[in-house]
Amino acid sequence: MITFEEFKTQASKILGLNLSSYKAKRVQRRVESLMRRRNIPDYTTCLELLRNNSNFRADFLNHFTINTSEFFRNPSNFVTLKNEIFPELFAGGKKVKIWSAPCSNGCEPYSLAIIIDELGIKSHQYEILGVDIDPNILQAAKKGIYNSGALKNVSTERLQKYFKQVGTNTFALSEKIKKMVHFKEFDLLKDTYSKNWDLILCRNFFIYLTSDVKDLLTRKFVDALRPGGILFLGNTEFIFEPEKFGLSKIVSSFYRKI
Ligand SMILES: C[S@@+](CC[C@H](N)C(=O)[O-])C[C@H]1O[C@@H](n2cnc3c(N)ncnc32)[C@H](O)[C@@H]1O
């Protein structure tokens, strides 16, 4: 019988995903809940399935990555974005590069696109890229079909303007907004970050990582921002001593590269 630590090392190699970067207790909880659900008796059997069964590998990754997202998650931050951050970023007249990392099912980058459309900003003035490690969730993002749970912060006015009801509980995002965002499969733990972003959203991802990996990725994100660029985090995520990372805090959840 192998220990959980051995399982993690072997599974990371098979999956090409470093499971040690994520908070250990959470990884164990997720793995064990999947094992219970699939009646897998021990870690050795689980490893064999990971090695030999591509469907199980996909299920494992799907179960491991928490894809929960919604439009305008933490609405007051999107008000700050619309009223304070965007007017500043778009004032210069240069193309504004925005990176949603990770973007899950697209709710986050599409929320940005809706605000940009409302501000009347033209297509040559921005670029929005959403990335995620999970290919299935990126497919869902490209489809742009959402149930009402993901739309609970969308006003009636926005719902009427940007969505079409396609089922009892299902809404399709307008083609106009879908066209404003590009998506790409990307592993934030190991892939190379491109540079010169004006705004990076990294929300509800750090909470899953060990504090060392969180610090490492904070440095990579800061490096990827242009000087003066902005990092936007989730509501429960904080950077203590932001100046150590070359950042200064603007308001809650928003940091600027010095
Ligand atoms: C809770 S969602 C956050 C989505 C969005 N930012 C939000 O706040 O609503 C976390 C996402 O992180 C993705 N993820 C996990 N590990 C990743 C990695 N190493 N690289 C890129 N994305 C990853 C998952 O697939 C999942 O879609």
From TrEMBL:
CDD domains: AdoMet_MTases (cd02440). GO terms for biological process: methylation. SUPFAM superfamilies: Chemotaxis receptor methyltransferase CheR, N-terminal domain, S-adenosyl-L-methionine-dependent methyltransferases. PROSITE patterns: CHER. One of its GO terms (molecular function) is S-adenosylmethionine-dependent methyltransferase activity. Gene3D superfamilies: Vaccinia Virus protein VP39. The keyword Lipoprotein does not apply. Keywords: Methyltransferase, S-adenosyl-L-methionine, Transferase. Residues 1-258 form the CheR-type methyltransferase domain. This is Protein-glutamate O-methyltransferase. It comes from Anoxybacter fermentans.
